[in-house]
Amino acid sequence: MHIAIVYDSIFGNTAQIAKAIASQLEAANTVQLLNVADARSADFAGIDLLIVGSPTRGFRPTPTAAEFVEGLPANIGAGKRGIAFDTRMSLDDIHPAPLRWVVDAGGYAADRIDTMLKHKGFEVSGTPAGFMVRGTEGPLKDGEIERAKSWAAAQVA
Ligand SMILES: Cc1cc2nc3c(=O)[nH]c(=O)nc-3n(C[C@H](O)[C@H](O)[C@H](O)COP(=O)(O)O)c2cc1C
Question: Going by CA atoms, what residue is nearest to atom 30 of ligand 1?
Fold first, then answer.
């Protein structure tokens, strides 16, 4: 399978997850790992699967990640699969407790990217995933790199 992984990352956590996913998948697939800044000029015509990742900021993907997906040609996803992932704060780390409800109810980047990928014609059959950081800027919580690898393996199994 030819897989492109496109990610945005402000503090480096989403980049680490994207790299872990790439390292998991590249044994059995052709994998292109692209920062979103380099992805605008890339050609996705020949890929089978596009994986897009972004930090969750203000309940949504970064503007750059959203603009990347929105800027893809109409219906480019026809005949291709798309999957989204994000990084986000762990609810346990959010204080005071009522704020947890607000953050969770506000939503996450991966769900919004998933919807955007559907609008571009991608078959979104995988499970969008959120990987946890400590506090607002990271680092990643223990075990999230391994969880990302297992998640990636399950998406293309
Ligand atoms: C301005 C700002 C807004 C954020 N908004 C959210 C949010 O709505 N929900 C959430 O779970 N995490 C939120 N976070 C935490 C980010 O998800 C976290 O910084 C991100 O996972 C780090 O990824 P990166 O290192 O790739 O930039 C926010 C962080 C910042 C700095």
Answer: 57
Burial class (CB in 10 A: 0-12, 13-18, 19+), 47: buried
Any atom of ligand 1 within 6 Å of the Cβ of 58: yes
Residue nearest to atom 1 of ligand 1 (CA): 57
Q: Is the CB of 136 under 6 A from ligand 1?
A: yes
SS3 37: helix
pTM recorded for the entire structure: 0.97
Kindly give the number of the ligand 1 atom that is closest to the alpha carbon of 11. 25
Cα–ligand 1 centroid distance for 55 (angstroms): 6
Closest CA to 121 of 68, 74, 156, 155: 74
Give the Cα separation of 72 and 15 in Å (integer). Answer: 21
Which domains are assigned to the chain? 2-155 (3.40.50.360)
User: pLDDT tens across 2-59, in order?
Assistant: 999 999 999 999 999 999 999 999 999 999 999 999 998 888 999 999 999 999 999 9
